[in-house]
Each structure stands twice: as structure tokens, then as C-alpha cells.
Amino acid sequence: MIVTLTANPSIDRTVTIDAPVTRGAVHRVSAPTDLAAGKGANVSRVLRAAGVKSLAIFPAPRGHEYLAGIEAHGLTALATPADGVRTNLTITEADGTTTKFNQPGAALSATQLAALEDSLIEAAADADWVVLAGSLPPGVAPEWYASLVARLHDAGARVAVDTSGAPLAAFATAATMPDLMKPNAHELAELVGGNGDALEAAVAHGDFASVRDAAGRLVRRGVAMVLTTLGAAGALLSTAEGDWFAASPPITPRSTVGAGDSSLAGFLIALSNGANAAEALRHAVASGSAATALAGTGVPTPADLDLDGTTVTPLD
């Protein structure tokens, strides 16, 4: 089983416009779609579509519309006490360009945060992987994710982390590192130094040295696998045994929302099915690309994946 934690869940409201966003202009939008989301919940949706057992854990008030949305997804879920759930707005343009406006979320009291943590640790006893994903609610210490890793390891679970900002920066000095980290180029640069745009540009020109060096620093600190997503170019997987690059298959982009979550889910699905590192990378990139070809926070199914069109290259 794979347990996902969404510490700061959201209802993702998406609208589509036909022309590029122009400041100060009036735009006519499509009818909005609302989705019970958050990075961990998004991962659980992809896992469910692939038939992989998952438990989605998040804080949400009793009777909140978020719970109805999670139920509609068919997810096995555990909600802990909270006073609210935020609503985020996503604007998607015709060419797939995505602009997001994210609220900070509802603060958790000390009692509510303890309940969330205790539920996670208890569930980890039956989990192969625990995914810590997304931002933290206001007021939660940035080191909270890092502090959970050792406890989750003690419970016997492997830990994957996909976050950004201060919670990601806390891993720069963490005593115990997760088994898997999934940064994008900008998040990798945030953590180890450098420029995310420069990392992506170098890869686009076939130069992997900078991103390999950056990811390698995390591997040397004890992260078993670093899955660095590189936008339309694909992704790079770094381990102590070697590095691999997977190029994205050809697609028509519609929305990048949830693509990174789908990549992480695809990687974990493949590992759960016994794939080696290189093959798991292929599934990660194929899954993220398939999500990008779907509208809104689309959930790719195994039938949507273009595995033959996703090329994996070992790097010397």
C-alpha cells in the first residue's frame, strides 16, 4: 500500500480561456470545474486509476465539500480534524500555459496537527511507501516534513517527498533524508544552489552535467533516488548506481496542472510492480506527459501512457 499525505489540501477550481492572459483585460472563461485535490490526493487518484492500493490522508472538516469530492474520486481516505480547506484558482490557456493562484490554506491547531501526524505514523505501519507532498498549512514549522522522515522509517515505510519552498529547504540540513525526492529543476536549484532556468536550458541542449551534479549532491547525502522533472524535456533519475534520462513522448499539451504528481505516481506504480529504476523512470515521464495532454488536473490511466514513445538513456 502507498499512503499519501496532503497536509494542505485544496479544492482546485480550473477555468480555460481562448487567448493569452492580459493584465487589466476582460477575459471570458469556460464553466469552472472544481476538483478535490492537493499533491498527495492527486497522486492517490493516479494510483487508484492503475489499481494500486492507496490511502489518502488529509485534514478537513466534517461534512466539507472536499470530502464529497474525494469520495467521488473513489479514494480510500482518512480525514483528520481541521477548520477549513482552501480553494485554488487555475487559468489554462489554449496552448496549455497554466497560471495558478493558490490560497495559503487553513491553519491547524497544535491538537489538529498532532492528530494528523499520529494518523500518518499509524498508517505507515502497513505501507510500502509514504508520500509527503505539497505545501504546509500556515503556522506549521518548515522542518515538519523532515522531522517525519525518521519516524516513518522507524515504522518500516520508505518515504517520498515532493514539496517546495521552506519545507524543501529544511532538507538541506536534515539529519535523515527520504528515500525518494521529486524536485523540478527550480526546486532542485532551491535546495542545492544554482539556477533552475539554467538547468532546464542546459538539458534542452543535451548538457546533463549541471543537473546531474545538483542531484548527485542529494544522493551523496543519503537520498536513494532523485527524480528531477524537467518540464517538456522529460526527467532525470539519479541514484548511487547511475543516472538515466527519459525524453518525453510527443503530445499536444493542454494543462500542466498535476503533471508532476502524475510523474511521481507513475514512478511509484512501476516500482510497486517490480520495475527497475530505468523502467520506473520511463513510466514516470510517460505518466506526466499523459497528464499534460489532459484538461485540468487530469488523471492518466495505464492505457494513456505512451511507453514506446518515451525513450530512456543511461548517462555515463
From TrEMBL:
GO cellular component: cytosol
Residue ranges annotated for the Carbohydrate kinase PfkB domain, each copy included: 8-302
MF GO annotations: ATP binding; phosphofructokinase activity
Matching Pfam families: PfkB
Keywords, comma-separated and alphabetical: ATP-binding, Kinase, Nucleotide-binding, Transferase
Classification via Gene3D superfamilies: 3.40.1190.20
InterPro entries attached to this UniProt entry: Carboh/pur_kinase_PfkB_CS (IPR002173), PfkB_dom (IPR011611), Ribokinase-like (IPR029056), Tagatose/fructose_Pkinase (IPR017583)
SUPFAM superfamilies, per the entry: Ribokinase-like
Signal peptide span: none
Superkingdom of origin organism: Bacteria
Family: Belongs to the carbohydrate kinase PfkB family.
NCBIfam families in the cross-refs: 1-PFK (TIGR03168)
Protein name as catalogued: 1-phosphofructokinase family hexose kinase
Taxonomic source organism: Gulosibacter macacae
